[in-house]
Amino acid sequence: MADRMTQSQLIKELAETCAVTNKVAKSMIETYAAIAVRETKKTGQFVLPGIGKLVRQERKARMGRNPATGEQIKIPAKKVVKFRVAKAVKDAIVPPKKK
Question: Which residue segment(s) compose the domain that 91 sits in?
Answer without folding.
Answer: 44-99
